[in-house]
Write a structure and sequence with these properties.
Distance between the termini: 50 Å
Order of helices and strands: EEEEEEHHHHHEEHHHHHHHH
Number of helices: 13
Strand content: 5-15%
Length: 303
């Protein structure tokens, strides 16, 4: 049974799973195709290259939901897709639930997963240079860094400041439901992430009423700042992929509410800055406690 939709976005302070609402204004004027009964196709990524539980519920993104035993569902642009691994199976399958084009959905999914990067080759190279990493790698096979849309990643990590995963997820769900509704999977409803123009129509007061607290002014301030960028905020964010890490982080830190740690997360998870190392208070304490981790992190950055 589908959950009823609310007439307006719910407060994130609700103790139960909030219903989601349709956007106030349409985001896309394009035909979406819903595929009906799920049809699964092999993704041609082995367990060594992609392990779903080591990739999705790890704090990289807060928009993908666990919709099966080893199954995660989410949206990539206008595409609603699911990924699954059968216990004991070495392959990953995908299903397109809704899309403008199934082929475009597959290509978008592979790009989102950074599929061109071979983890097996990286792990082999790192292990040769550091035997300790070789031991650690046995437990990290298939843990991939995602390549998210920069705007989507930015807004998510503005919500993450001094927050916990459950509350971050509710905030991100609130923002997400402002976008076009794409469908539901196993009781979860999914929306395309709202455009910058749609986000600009949400006031700080509305976000504060929804429970965003001080983060409300950072989100509205950042949206306004992006809209003032030459060529538009989306183009400006994408241009940061062409800069070196320090330049990209410095540029992100000019946005309201973005500090070095949040900037490093955005750079790593959406801007191809794979040498970025997000460091929060928990990571810093562990680095001080275990100096060998500093060596391992330095090894990764140098490569």
């Amino acid at each position: 049974m589908k959950r009823p939709r609310a007439t307006s976005p719910p407060s994130i302070s609700a103790t139960t799973k909030p219903p989601l609402s349709p956007p106030v204004t349409p985001i896309l004027k394009q035909k979406l195709h819903r595929t009906g009964a799920p049809k699964w196709f092999p993704l041609k990524l082995t367990h060594t290259e992609l392990t779903l539980p080591l990739t999705f519920p790890t704090g990289q993104t807060f928009r993908w939901k666990q919709t099966g035993v080893i199954q995660y569902s989410g949206t990539i642009g206008p595409h609603l897709v699911s990924l699954r691994q059968c216990p004991g199976d070495d392959t990953v399958s995908y299903c397109v639930h809704c899309s403008t084009s199934p082929k475009s959905a597959e290509l978008a999914l592979l790009d989102f997963l950074n599929a061109e990067i071979s983890l097996a080759e990286l792990w082999s190279d790192f292990s040769k240079k550091d035997p300790r990493f070789g031991e650690l790698a046995k437990h990290l096979r298939g843990a991939r860094v995602l390549r998210q849309d920069p705007l989507e990643c930015l807004i998510q990590f503005l919500c993450s400041s001094n927050n916990n995963i459950a509350r971050i997820t509710k905030m991100v769900d609130f923002v997400s439901c402002l976008g076009s509704h794409l469908g539901d999977v196993e009781g979860f409803e999914f929306h395309q992430f709202p455009s910058l123009d749609r986000l600009s129509k949400v006031s700080e007061a509305e976000l504060r009423k929804a429970g965003f607290g001080y983060r409300a002014k950072y989100i509205t301030g950042t949206v306004n700042a992006l809209q003032s960028k030459p060529g538009g905020g989306n183009e400006w964010l994408l241009s940061l992929r062409k800069l070196d890490l320090q330049e990209a982080v410095a540029a992100l830190c000019t946005l309201p509410g973005v500090g070095p740690k949040v900037a490093a997360c955005i750079a790593l998870f959406s801007l191809d800055q794979h040498s970025a190392i997000p460091v929060d208070t928990h990571v810093w304490k562990e680095l001080i406690r275990s100096p060998q981790i500093i060596y391992c992190q330095t090894l990764l950055v140098q490569n």
